[in-house]
Design goal:
The complex is a heterodimer of chains A (250) and B (163). Chain A has 250 residues and is mainly α. Chain A has a single domain, classed as Ferritin, core subunit, four-helix bundle (Ferritin, Up-down Bundle). Helices cover 65% and strands 0% of the residues of chain A. Chain A starts with a helix and ends in a 6-residue tail after the last helix. With 163 residues, chain B is an alpha/beta fold. Helices cover 23% and strands 23% of the residues of chain B. A 4-stranded mixed sheet of chain B has the order 4-7-6-5. In chain B, helix 3 (55-69) links the parallel strand 2 and strand 3 (74-79). The longest helix of chain B is centred in the middle third of the chain and has 15 residues, at 55-69. Chain B is elongated and about 55 Å long. Classes of the chains: A mainly alpha (250), B alpha/beta (163).
Chain lengths: 250, 163
């Protein structure tokens, strides 16, 4: 087994799984029907992508691992998703700001992965990029609509961007698995992605008449399994049924 | 017992419909990538439309049921991701059937993925055929659809997204 490849695949899978789970919480609570449907559609895309990636990770893990065992029977410290994906939804502005900052990162990440030297990751990325670019356009439009909207929407989305800023640094700091995969031509050079990401984010913030937060202390730890206090609660909700009834089948 | 060969397998597959959009067969959708037969065994390779499309599991089960009913003993369904599915693979008959069913068919050509905004595609109203329509939402009732409204006859309708 290539441990670095497995862990890197889990990083991609867990970002999609945890963010998909979070977005699913909006089901039935969206401000209007169309936006409720939009977020659950995006959630579904993420869950679909995470399934393909978890199947691949399970294949590498061997030992009878399956996509379900990886999703439902791993503990908090074994999840490798970025902290930003596990943050609570808060209000609409916060959810869309989180999407925007992550989607933009995800877009550039998958744009590289479309030419990854790993054939399976490449195939998944070529499928997923169509969905991810759609997500990135959707969330960027919302940032502009809210930033350049009413006084209240402007103030709410500015606060959201400010509060989320410290969770963006982690995107560009590779852990050892990512580093090894970058060397092997499987993964992008994460430090280099920062430039593209900043350019796009600045462009949207400017159109949205929003201030660019100052870079300060950056949180990190998700990539290596050190999560925020919110992670345990997500897993409790996501995992309690398969853990209570481990032999249950659909 | 009917004849079992590649041709008959294809004919059977052409009868399998999409569970979400029953007027379309999986052949119309263009998701069948390959069919191989050997004796009484058949192997069908399909590709998903969207990563999270819940219809894929049903489609796989429906393919197995249809081929077994046609007399095949061993039926295997494989999934490939690459090259990724595109709406360009949808058949001309499929597009006509979609419009008759009330869903605007995808317009050929994929939008520039690097553009900041998804330029709203100009869908044609399936009811009055007017092309003055507006996009209400990029997302719709299933992953493959967006929500539009006709500004001529005011009919709201689904548009099969072009990917």
């Amino acid at each position: 087994m290539n441990l670095d490849l497995k862990n890197y695949t889990l990083f991609l899978a867990d970002n999609a799984l945890i963010l998909g789970q979070r977005l699913g919480e909006w089901c039935g609570y969206g401000p209007v029907l169309e936006q409720d449907i939009a977020l659950t559609n995006i959630s579904l895309d993420h869950l679909g992508q995470s399934r393909m990636l978890l199947q691949y990770a399970a294949k590498q893990a061997g030992n009878g691992a399956t996509e379900d065992s990886l999703a439902f029977f791993r503990n908090e410290g074994e999840f490798r998703n970025l902290l930003i994906t596990e943050l609570p939804n808060n209000d609409w502005a916060f959810t869309l700001a989180r999407q925007f900052l992550f989607d933009t990162f995800n877009f550039f990440q998958y744009e590289f992965l479309m030419n990854s030297r790993d054939e399976t990751i490449q195939a998944i990325a070529r499928k997923a990029i169509k969905e991810i670019s759609y997500h990135a356009q959707f969330s960027a439009e919302w940032i502009i609509r809210m930033g350049d909207g009413t006084e209240e929407s402007h103030q709410r989305v500015q606060k959201a961007i400010n509060d989320l800023w410290m969770y963006t640094g982690e995107m560009f700091i590779a852990d050892s698995a990512s580093e090894a995969m970058t060397k092997a031509g499987v993964a992008p050079d994460y430090a280099q992605l920062a430039g593209q990401w900043k350019e796009k984010v600045n462009q949207v913030l400017e159109l949205a008449t929003l201030d660019h937060p100052e870079d300060g202390w950056m949180q990190k730890g998700g990539r290596t399994g050190n999560h925020t206090e919110h992670m345990g609660f997500i897993l409790a909700e996501m995992q309690h049924i398969p853990r209570t009834y481990p032999t249950a089948k659909w | 017992m009917s004849v079992l060969n590649l041709e008959s397998a294809n004919l059977t597959l052409e009868q399998v419909s999409d569970p979400e959009i029953p007027v379309l067969t999986i052949a119309d959708l263009g998701i069948i990538r390959n069919v191989k037969t050997e004796g009484r065994s058949v192997e069908v390779t399909i590709t998903p439309t969207y990563s999270g499309c819940p219809a894929m599991d049903t489609i796989e089960a429906d393919i197995k049921t249809a081929l077994k009913a046609a007399g095949w003993q061993e039926v295997e369904v494989l999934t490939v991701l690459n090259p990724p599915w595109t709406t360009d693979w949808m058949s001309v008959e499929g597009r006509i059937k979609l419009e008759e069913y009330g869903i605007a068919a995808p317009i050929n050509g994929t939008a520039d993925k690097r553009s900041l905004f998804g330029k709203a595609e100009e869908a044609r109203c399936p009811r009055c055929k007017s092309s003055s329509t507006q996009r209400i939402s990029q997302f719709g009732s299933t992953p493959c659809k967006a929500l539009y409204q006709c500004t001529s006859c005011l009919e709201p309708f689904d548009y099969f997204k072009c990917i």
